[in-house]
Every structure is written in structure tokens, then in C-alpha cells.
Amino acid sequence: MGNYRTKLSRAGIKDVAVNAGKRSRSNPEGASQRANIKRPRRGEIQFLPNYPRGENKDTLETQRMEMVEEFKKTPADRDMILIYTYMQHTFALRREEIVTLAPPITEFKARWPGLFSEAHVYGEFHRVASQNLQYSFFAALDRHTPQLLKLYKQRRTGAFGEKMKDLLIAYEEQDKNDITAARTAALAGLPLYLKEDSSEIFKSCKEEESEAFQEGAVALVAMVDEEDTVSGIPFQPRHVSVILEDQVVMSLKSWTDAVVVLFGLIYALNLSYPAKLSGFFEFIQVILLNLDDERKQLKAKLQALKNELG
To answer: Counting Cβ atoms within 10 Å, is residue 146 exposed (0-12), middle (13-18) or buried (19+)?
Structure first.
């Protein structure tokens, strides 16, 4: 197998070549074999693809610059077909920058403004994981929501239990014909059920306080008319800002849609899950989307929840 990987690396297969040059008998000055190994960890199908046939870095860079020029135009004047086509063609160049260079979000957004829109986040996730993120996410969530809410009602003890009780009371006041309310309750209760602190990631505030809340490597900030005290999750926000590295990168109307987009951006930008909500995002990855890394064993609480959901 090692010989096969060596041949792939010499043939220029980037998924393998990115880890070449590590310390060995023939390369004693190389980096440690365990240092900064780049590999798919979350079921990525195309982690670091090669350039399309007939393209090179210069031609793809030209296409990237043309897209940047398109985004300088008003939305009505942009050539969306050209942008979509070039987003497809330049995927390999974009992944190369993300995986090998890990540029700051502000720099990356300036170079690739097309990625930071809802449709293109879903498109990028499909390229990375070969899955329709929005459809798969909500189909699985709707299937599990009744059982999740039933499990939440059983967790009423301790500090997390009190917050869960408040969340369920707030949910009972919502319109039961509104599927978004049920989805919000299911997602908002998940960190509480897993006993994770979501306060630094999921925030809500009034419009005039927004700048003070736009901090953090990863966060969702919901703007509300009145302060929402239910675990920081509003059922009817005015809008929700997606925060990456203290920068507002996107804004959406629905909190549940913002969660899906945030998850898609984590894949698109090869980001780590926030440590305090790792169980929440692993639930989405493994249980909702079935993007499983077979080498990794689920945490006991996640495995127990998976068993409960059947």
C-alpha cells in the first residue's frame, strides 16, 4: 500500500502528494511523519482534487479574477451563469488554497466572494461531499424531530434541564403548523440534551447591540426585536448573521437555514468544529447526513442518542 501511495504521489495525485516529503531514511531532513497530515476526516469525497484536464493554475486564476470583477457589479448586472460555471471550474484551485494555505477569512472572502452566498455554499458542499446539503439535512431532521422532542421532555433535571424546560415552554407557544418552529426547537435543544454550552456560538441580541456580539471564530448571531432568553435561540429572528473569525460573512432570515449554511461553510473552508459544540456538529455529520468516518468511534452520549433515534 505504501508503494502504491508513492506511485500516486509521483503521478501528481494531490490527495496523496500533499503528505509527501515527510521524514524518512531517504529524506532525513523532512518534517515529522505526524506533523500536519492533510487528510479527509469527515467523509469528504473530494478533499484535494487535481486541476481539471486542460487547466492550470494560471488559467484558473484568470477565471477567479473574472468572477471577482463580476461581483463588483450590481446583483442585477452580474452574469450568474458565468459565475456558476467558473465556481465549478475553479474548485480545485480553491481547495488547494484552503487545505495547504488556510488563509484568513477576510483575505479568502476578498479572493472568492462567490462562495459566500447560500446557493454557492450548497454547491461547494456538493462538490466536497457529493450530497445535497439542504435537502438531506432537513429531510433527516424532520424525520427525527418528533423523537428528539420526546427525548427533550424527559430531560428536566440540572442546569441544562432547566434551560430545556424553558425552551419547550417557548416552543409550545409557537404555531404548531409552522415546521420551522419544530426544527428550531429540535436543533436548539440538541446542545442542551448533549450537555454542551452553546452560549458562545449561538447568540441573540437587539440590532443596536449587534457589534458587541459579533465576535468569535465561529458564531451565529440572531437579531431580535426583544431580548430572547431561551438558550439564545429566537424562533422568529429579524435576521441571523453568520460569523467567522469575527467577520460577518453571510446573513439569513431563518435560524435553521443559518445552521445549515454554517455547517456547509465548515466543510467548504475545512474548518474545525467549535470545541464546545463538537457533539452538535458531529450529530449533523454522522446522524443527519450519514457522513461517517469509520475509523472514528462516536462519543458515548452521541452513540446513545443515535440508538435512541433508531
So the answer is: exposed
